[in-house]
Amino acid sequence: MTSVFKPLKSVNTLVLAGILAAASLAATAQTVAPAAPATASAPDKSDPTAGHHDQHRHDPAKMQARIAQHQAELKAKLAITPAQEGAWSAYTSALQPQAPHAVQRPDRTAMRAEVEKLTTPQRIDKMNALRTQHMAEMNAALTKRGDAIKSFYAALNADQQKVFDAQRMGRGGKGHPSHHNG
Q: Is residue 95 within 8 Å of 148, Cβ to Cβ?
């Protein structure tokens, strides 16, 4: 009878080893990796394309300059007439990125203290409510932006609309210029 249990014992050993391996992987995954040295994250100065997106994303002045350049290029391509200046101004104003200080952000310390007092189901409900609010705000901003584009587009003549349609949006769609292909 002992021979029948030997295979079971080895299976149990394998199962136990698998559980321990999974537990150690889970523990390792939850540990915080040490911060990388500052020099490792710095873009390579010898490579002109290295860190291209990060350089502009974090510098509001460079981002504004890039937006202004793209808008000037689009305005020239469209040959905006004096009669269309009002529509152009409304369009460019609506597309300006929101300043970080304009976005209402909750006090994270107070929110964390509030959330710590909640039960797990209450925390889930709180996070769902916050996500719903955030999504509603994003949808409202996108709708406003879309309406501004449609309004400007309606002010263009047929030839200008063709030029506008040929432009690429920020991440690959059609609509307005992008630093990738604009």
A: yes
Give the torsion sign (CA, 86, 88, 89, 90): positive
Q: Are 34 and 136 in contact (CB under 8 A)?
A: no
Q: Which of 156, 142, 42 is nearest to 94 (CA)?
A: 142
**How confident is the model over 104-137, as pLDDT tens digits?**
566 788 888 888 999 999 999 999 999 999 999 9
Taking the C-alpha atoms of residue 21 and residue 12, their distance in angstroms, rounded to an integer, is 14
**Smallest Cα–Cα separation from 128: which of 45, 11, 120?**
120
Q: What is the mean pLDDT for each group of 10 consecutive residues in the chain (182 residues)?
A: 53 56 49 44 48 59 89 93 93 79 67 90 93 93 92 94 83 44 40
**Contacts by 37-40, CB closer than 8 A, 24 or more apart:** none
DSSP 3-state assignment of 172? Answer: coil
What's the predicted TM-score (pTM) here? 0.55
